[in-house]
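Priority: medium. Attachment 1 of 2:
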């Protein structure tokens, strides 16, 4: 469809990637975000091979390789530091044809912003309503501004304003059951080897080190807590010291070295899989379409897949916008629903929803040679559009 104009709500990873894909197809793109300055939520993100392949196809492969971490091995340890399993990720990379790249959210955002046409992104614009007819769709903003185009992409994140509008009902965000602290620390051999993703598990908790660019580790610490616990940076170290008392030395060093003021503390939520991702000329994308627990590392990758699939249908169908969006929904709905459910299931096992299942998992890790863990990741990756 020629000379289409796309209105994109949300300048996160999904919105920017969709904007880049559509601009490369020759479309006019306007991207709006309610924030006054773009500050990524969270420190970093694990981009598995299915997400990286989308960036490769958009011509950003070299750029992501420069800022991504070199992750060659994966290891699990018990809370006290006993090695449960350790293996090379090389067989995974050979099966899927692309290495993963954990990357800081700031660098990923800079990379995407550099690829979008200058002037495309407008900040401080909160979309509150959408109107559409047979020929166009209009986003209405809090300040009265109106933006009209041929298609509207709601990529406004986990707290999406537009999700309810597309779903036709109120969609609740569900508490998954744990609190996650995450941030960045300088790489150091007394934390983990530089090319390893090391995880410590026990007592339904988790501590993780993952390499990102610039000789840093992306860390995260998970603790199951009741919903609504309140904290502030001046309490983080004490909270974590108490929660991880008696854990292995690398975990203790991490808690002492992290900077509470640049550490994010978040209650993890997801949404039940949606039965519809589109309404007329409006399409949900990324976290607005499928908020998921981060336990599979697929949230960002699914936003990138969405962007690629949506742009392709808009480019290749000749039956109009609504038809293209229906094809997008058909291609994506079951895929993302499956991953939302798998991520929730994985989270439940990791965080002790059923303590017996969690103990069984700890026992299985001692017998693991990498095959079943990598097999599950490969299956998820190869289910994507660029397999």
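Attachment 2 of 2:
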């Amino acid at each position: 469809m020629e000379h289409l104009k796309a209105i994109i709500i949300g300048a996160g990873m999904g919105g920017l990637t969709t904007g880049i894909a559509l601009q490369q197809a020759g479309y006019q793109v306007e991207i709006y975000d309610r924030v006054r300055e773009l500050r990524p939520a969270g420190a970093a993100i694990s981009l598995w091979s299915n997400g990286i392949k989308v960036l490769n196809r958009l011509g950003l492969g070299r750029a992501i390789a420069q800022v991504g971490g070199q992750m060659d091995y994966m290891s699990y340890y018990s809370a006290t530091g006993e090695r449960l399993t350790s293996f090379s990720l090389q067989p995974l990379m050979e099966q899927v044809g692309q290495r993963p790249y954990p990357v800081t959210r700031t660098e990923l955002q800079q990379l995407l912003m550099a690829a979008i046409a200058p002037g495309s992104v407008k900040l401080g614009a909160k979309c509150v309503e959408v109107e559409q007819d047979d020929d166009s769709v209009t986003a209405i903003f809090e300040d009265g501004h109106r933006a009209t185009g041929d298609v509207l992409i709601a990529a406004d994140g986990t707290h999406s304003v537009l999700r309810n509008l597309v779903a036709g009902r109120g969609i609740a965000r569900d508490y998954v059951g744990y609190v996650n602290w995450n941030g960045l620390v300088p790489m150091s051999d007394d934390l983990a080897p530089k090319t390893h993703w090391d995880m410590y598990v026990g007592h339904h908790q988790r501590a993780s080190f993952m390499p990102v660019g610039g000789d840093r580790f992306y860390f995260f610490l998970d603790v199951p807590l009741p919903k609504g616990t309140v904290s502030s940076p001046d309490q983080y170290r004490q909270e974590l010291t108490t929660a991880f008392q008696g854990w292995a030395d690398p975990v203790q060093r991490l808690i002492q070295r992290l900077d509470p003021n640049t550490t994010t503390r978040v209650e993890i939520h997801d949404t039940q899989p949606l039965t519809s991702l589109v309404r007329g000329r409006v399409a949900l994308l990324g976290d607005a379409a499928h908020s998921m627990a981060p336990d599979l590392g697929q949230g960002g990758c699914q936003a990138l897949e969405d962007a690629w699939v949506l742009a392709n249908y808009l480019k290749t169908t000749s039956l109009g916008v609504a038809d293209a969006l229906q094809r997008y929904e058909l291609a994506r709905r079951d895929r993302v629903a499956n991953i939302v459910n798998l991520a929730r299931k994985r989270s439940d096992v990791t965080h002790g929803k059923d303590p017996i299942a969690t103990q069984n998992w700890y026992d299985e890790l001692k017998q693991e040679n990498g095959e079943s863990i990598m097999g599950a990741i490969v299956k998820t990756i190869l289910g994507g559009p660029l397999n």
